[in-house]
Structure formats: structure tokens, C-alpha cells
Q: What sequence folds into this?
């Protein structure tokens, strides 16, 4: 435990700020000197003994304030305003005092004087809740038609309705400076805008700024956003000839197969634009027809090089996904200057699909175009050399990436039979910066909100604190969050700071008792389970995905209900998945189900946990075994492919993190058996991994 973490532990015990501990000494200089000259054990003992000399008045006050704060919120909900006022009077020096004022004012704007609201917005301008109150007040002012007050207190808002009201307020108060220009910026959108903008838009339509070119610009935005109704509405302001082109565009959008066949359009820019739109739309439903149509159209229409390159890229990717016979040819036609991670993936995918190792050597003959794909690029070049019996050359390349802490770096180390290089570099101990950041108002508020279980508000304050932080300061903040046990903020903060080398902070071990218990009960690899939980939720107990998955192990409610029955639970509620004590038993039980279903193949079980077992069944080879690294590379879903690689990589780090024997990625891999052999006894169809040192 570092001395910062020791102090934080004492803070949590005594609820005293670090500066109060340091007041035991005559100066910070003496404090730091003692830390340097004394051994860690003696120094910690001295500090601990000094705690006995400090009266815990501050601790008692802070704990009392927390209780009063919660009581104040309770009585406010009960509308006991006199009691609320008395309690808030005692909390003026409490970090969350502004939250009580906000909670009182926000639903009672009609009762609050303007000067009180303005005073709050000015005094607490750096709090996220200040903008919450401002938004609510702006909506109130707009409904009351108090336009000058609206303008006086308007700040830039993300809410389009409030932006529209701001334009309207300027009209109502004759504040016309740059009004048309600002209206044009808001009008230029691929979506229909709120009716609150109508009056401002009417002025724009009557102005000299409005012309056919501007209308076409918005029509293009609408069509790119598949808003054909908006495009049709806008076309009414065009001449008859242009309206006809918009109608053609909409028709091509809805039925590209019909209207890209012998279109008989003039070879003019708008016709080419419409046909390109149609080919890209057609590629989504019928790649074979799209490729054929595009070849024919290029012989008739004079598309410019940039247009051709964009369509070629899209068709090549769609063809590769569909395993079209022309995929490789289309991918090879893409200029080397346009190769990125996605193009490289599909070139590699098509070559691996045919076990074309020479093709992979040709593909990787140049230097990687982007730094972040270098390990992948070099690993597969080495594998291709290995498969073509150029063992020495393969090993030379494996050595260039084997020291990297990366999925492909670890695989390269496995090929060489060398130990993994974790490259762990802990954050430096910087007590002054630690204390400075700990005392930042937003961090203090985040701490209090986190302590009181107000998680959403705590997260907002935490990220608000980053506005003026350097990367180094964010790293210190991440360590502070870890001390609070707030591991999801630690991981996210380190990611924002692009700081990846403190593995203790990045790979924490929270919920250890419940995770270890259930992993052991299901006979699952503990590091694998930890890797999965981290990848799924970064240890956010209340995590919710856009798809509806919940909790630490991101279980879908339907899966949770079915699995709860398998566990013999008499009842199941959706909110169970937001409780670690119920989510982990359900998640590990489902993971065990996938593990058993796929004959204890961790790769398949991991992929099935992410994409579902039915998808994995589709991806299994038909008749022959497949090497696991190849199968992973050929997973069609980008998210699942990256997920499986990440889980395997994380699992080895968690072995190191738990100070146990590190299981190599290839040791966790098993050969992928064909569909016909899936339910049979596990076949020994893997190529043996030989150390080639």
C-alpha cells in the first residue's frame, strides 16, 4: 500500500482530510523529510500514532452534515419546508449545499425571484446542476414569453428547442445582429427541426441567404440521413426541373434495384450523386447486383476518382462480409493510401478464408500504414512465414512484437515460448498533486455524492472535474477514485488520459468474494471470469447497455429470467441484475452453460456470451478443424471479434494481477471443431504449438 493509499484509508476511517494529518508536523517540508528518511513501516507507524493526538471534530462534523443532507432531501420530498430551511442553514459549508438549493428551486421556478436564480447560476456556474437549472428556467421563461430575460441568461445549449427559442427571443426583442446567419446554421440539418424554429426559418426563407444551393445542401443532408419526407418537403421550394431530380433520388433510395438499372439520366453531377446513393443502398441488400450495376454505370457515367474510390471501398467491404467471389479483387483494387484497419481486416479475412499464406505475405510486405495495427500486421506476416516454412524469418518478426503488452504480442511470445512482458509502470507517488486534486471542489463533491450513493450525480461531477486537468492530473485522479473503490471511474479516467501502464489500477479486483465463489462453484477459470466482467461493465454494478443488458456481467433480462429458473430461484425481477449478489450468480451460470455447450472451448464460450450461441454455431467450420487464432480473426461481427481478443488478453493480465501462474493465450485456446463434430468427443485436431527459440 502506497502512503497516499494509507492516508486515504485513514481518511475513510476518521473522515479527516490529509492536511489535518500533516498538521501533526511543523511543516510539509518536515512531513516529506520524514517520509524519505524513515522506513515505510516506521513512517506509517508514526503517522498512525499521531492520529491518536487529533480530535475527530471534523470527522464528526462531516458525518453529521451527511446525515443532515440526506434528512434535508427527505423533508423536502415531504414538503416540510420549515424543517428543510433549518437544515439547509446548517449546511452552507457542506460541499453539496448547492444540490439542496437546486432541488428546492428547480420544481418551483414560478415562485423563485429572478435574482435568486441568477445568483445561483453565477455562484455555482461550475456545477453540472447549474446548467440543469438554467435549462429548466429557460424553458419556463420561453413559455411565459419573457424574451429579454431569456436572452440575458442564455448560454450555448445542446438542446435544439432551446436554440430555437433563442432565435425567437432575438426576433421578439429586435436583436437582429447575425440572426439570419445563426438561423441558417440551425436550419442546415439532416433532421426536421422543432416547431419553435418556424418563425426564424420563415425569415430565413424570405432573406437573400436562401437560395437553391442552400436548399440542395440540406436535401443532401436529409438523404444521407434517410429522411426522405424532409427532402420531399424541401424540394417544394425548388423549380420544377430540380423537384424532378429530388423525386428520382427518393425513388432510387426506396428501390435501388429498379432505378439503378439502365437509368437513362443525363451525365450530370446530380445524376451521378443519385446513382452513387443507389449503388450504396443496393449493396446493403444485394451485393452481387450492386457490383454488376456499378461496373455498367462506370462505363456510361464520368464519375470522378474520389467518387469511384468511395464506392469501391464500400462495395469491397460489403463483398468481403458476404464472402463474394469478387471480394479479394475488389479489396486489392483499393489504393494503398486508403488502407486502414477495416480494409486490412477484410483483406486478411479473405486471405485466411482461403488459407492463402502467400497472399498474406503480399498483403503485409510494406510497413503497416497505421501504428495501432502494427502488432496485428506483423503477427500475421510472421504466421504466414511460419506456414510457408520460413521459420527463422517468422521468429525474427515474432521477436519484434513479443515484448508488447498486447493480444498479438502475447501470441507472439507464445510462439517463441517466452514469458509475457507486462510492462507495468505504477504511477509515481506525488503527495502534493494528490492533495491538490483531492481538494478540487468538483472532486470533493464527487466524493460526497459517491459516498451517499448518488451515483449519477457523482459521475457527472467527476467528469466535470476533467475540464482543466492535464493527463498527469487525470492519472492521479484515477488513483484517488481507486482508493474510494470507484473502479469504473478509475478505468475510464485512465483511458481518457491515455495512460495504460499502471496495471494495478487498470485491472482491479473488486467484488472478489462473490466472483471467486461463483467461478469456483461453476469450475470456471477465475481470471477468465474477471476479464469478462471488466470487459462487460468495467465493474459498474448499475451498468446498462443500449441493447438492454444489465449489471456487472451485462445479462439480458430474458436470459436472466431463464437462468434464474435453472438456478432454482422461485422468483426473478429485472432489478436483480443490478445487484452484484444476484447478477454474478446468474452471469456465471450462463457462462458455464455456454462453456459446457461448446465442449469447454473458452473461445467459443466467450464469443457465445457476447453474440449468442446461435451466431457462434453459424460461424463454426463445416467439415475441417480450424486453428483458434484464425477462427477469431474470421469472426464476422467486429464487436465480437475484438471482444474475444480482449477477454483472452485480459485473462492473462488477471493471472499476473492475482499473482498466480500466468496461463498463456494459446494455452486457453482450443482448436475449433467442425459443426458435425461439435457434440462428439473433443477431437485432437489442433496443430501442436512448438517452441521455436
A:
Amino acid at each position: 500500500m502506497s502512503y497516499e493509499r494509507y492516508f486515504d484509508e485513514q481518511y475513510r476511517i476518521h473522515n479527516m482530510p490529509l492536511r489535518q494529518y500533516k498538521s501533526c508536523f511543523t511543516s510539509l517540508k518536515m512531513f516529506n523529510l520524514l517520509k524519505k528518511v524513515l522506513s515505510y513501516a516506521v513512517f506509517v507507524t508514526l503517522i498512525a500514532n499521531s492520529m491518536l493526538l487529533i480530535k475527530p471534530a471534523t470527522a464528526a462534523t462531516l458525518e453529521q452534515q451527511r446525515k443532515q443532507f440526506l434528512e434535508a432531501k427527505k423533508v423536502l420530498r415531504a414538503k416540510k419546508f420549515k424543517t428543510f430551511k433549518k437544515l439547509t442553514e446548517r449546511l452552507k459549508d457542506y460541499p453539496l449545499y448547492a444540490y439542496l438549493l437546486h432541488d428546492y428551486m428547480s420544481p418551483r421556478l414560478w415562485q423563485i425571484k429572478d435574482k435568486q436564480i441568477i445568483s445561483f447560476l453565477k455562484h455555482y456556474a461550475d456545477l453540472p446542476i447549474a446548467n440543469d437549472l438554467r435549462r429548466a428556467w429557460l424553458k419556463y421563461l420561453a413559455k411565459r414569453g419573457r424574451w429579454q430575460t431569456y436572452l440575458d441568461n442564455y448560454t450555448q445549449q445542446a438542446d435544439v428547442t432551446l436554440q430555437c427559442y433563442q432565435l425567437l427571443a432575438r426576433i421578439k426583442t429586435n436583436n437582429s445582429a447575425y440572426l439570419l446567419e445563426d438561423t441558417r446554421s440551425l436550419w442546415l440539418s439532416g433532421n426536421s427541426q422543432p416547431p419553435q424554429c418556424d418563425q426564424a426559418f420563415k425569415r430565413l426563407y424570405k432573406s437573400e441567404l436562401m437560395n437553391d444551393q442552400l436548399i440542395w445542401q440540406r436535401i443532401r443532408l436529409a438523404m444521407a440521413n434517410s429522411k426522405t419526407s424532409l427532402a420531399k418537403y424541401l424540394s417544394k421550394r425548388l423549380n420544377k426541373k430540380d423537384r424532378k431530380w429530388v423525386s428520382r433520388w427518393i425513388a432510387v433510395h426506396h428501390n435501388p434495384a429498379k432505378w439503378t438499372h439502365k437509368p437513362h439520366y443525363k451525365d450530370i453531377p446530380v445524376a451521378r450523386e443519385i446513382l452513387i446513393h443507389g449503388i450504396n443502398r443496393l449493396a446493403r441488400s444485394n451485393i452481387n447486383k450492386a457490383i454488376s450495376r456499378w461496373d455498367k454505370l462506370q462505363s456510361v457515367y464520368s464519375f470522378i476518382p474520389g467518387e469511384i474510390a468511395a464506392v469501391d471501398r464500400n462495395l469491397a467491404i460489403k463483398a468481403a462480409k458476404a464472402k463474394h467471389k469478387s471480394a479479394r479483387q475488389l479489396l486489392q483494387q483499393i489504393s494503398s493510401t486508403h488502407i486502414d484497419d477495416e480494409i486490412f481486416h477484410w483483406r486478411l479475412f479473405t486471405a485466411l478464408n482461403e488459407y492463402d499464406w502467400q497472399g498474406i505475405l503480399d498483403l503485409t510486405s510494406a510497413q503497416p500504414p497505421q501504428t495501432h495495427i502494427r502488432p496485428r500486421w506483423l503477427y500475421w506476416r510472421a504466421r504466414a512465414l511460419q506456414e510457408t516454412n520460413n521459420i527463422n524469418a517468422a521468429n525474427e518478426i515474432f521477436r519484434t512484437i513479443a515484448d508488447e503488452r498486447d493480444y498479438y504480442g502475447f501470441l507472439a511470445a507464445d510462439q517463441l515460448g517466452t514469458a509475457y512482458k507486462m510492462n507495468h509502470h505504477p504511477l509515481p507517488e506525488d503527495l502534493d498533486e494528490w492533495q491538490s486534486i483531492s481538494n478540487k471542489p468538483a472532486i470533493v463533491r464527487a466524493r460526497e455524492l459517491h459516498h451517499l450513493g448518488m451515483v449519477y450525480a457523482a459521475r457527472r461531477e467527476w467528469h466535470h472535474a476533467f475540464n482543466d486537468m492535464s493527463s498527469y492530473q487525470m492519472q492521479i485522479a484515477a488513483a484517488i477514485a481507486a482508493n474510494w473503490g470507484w473502479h469504473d471511474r478509475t478505468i475510464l479516467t485512465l483511458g481518457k488520459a491515455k495512460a495504460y501502464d499502471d496495471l494495478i489500477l487498470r485491472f482491479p479486483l473488486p467484488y472478489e468474494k462473490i466472483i471467486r465463489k461463483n467461478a469456483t462453484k461453476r469450475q470456471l477459470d477465475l481470471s477468465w471470469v474477471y476479464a469478462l466482467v471488466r470487459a462487460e461493465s468495467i465493474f459498474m454494478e448499475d451498468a446498462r447497455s443500449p441493447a438492454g443488458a444489465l449489471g456487472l456481467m451485462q445479462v439480458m433480462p430474458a436470459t436472466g429470467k431463464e437462468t434464474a429458473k435453472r438456478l432454482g430461484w422461485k422468483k426473478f425481477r429485472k432489478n436483480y441484475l443490478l445487484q452484484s449478489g444476484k447478477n454474478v450468480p446468474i452471469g456465471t451460470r450462463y457462462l458455464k452453460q455456454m462453456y459446457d455447450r461448446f465442449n469447454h472451448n473458452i473461445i467459443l464460450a466467450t464469443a457465445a456470451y457476447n453474440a449468442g450461441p446461435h451466431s457462434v454455431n453459424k460461424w463454426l467450420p463445416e467439415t475441417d478443424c480450424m486453428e483458434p487464432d484464425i477462427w477469431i480473426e474470421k469472426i464476422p461481427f467486429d464487436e465480437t471479434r475484438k471482444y474475444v481478443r480482449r477477454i483472452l488478453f485480459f485473462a492473462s493480465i488477471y493471472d499476473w494481477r492475482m499473482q498466480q501462474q500466468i496461463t498463456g493465450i494459446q494455452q486457453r485456446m482450443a482448436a475449433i471443431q467442425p459443426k458435425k463434430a461439435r457434440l462428439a468427443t473433443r477431437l485432437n485436431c489442433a496443430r501442436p504449438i512448438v517452441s521455436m527459440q
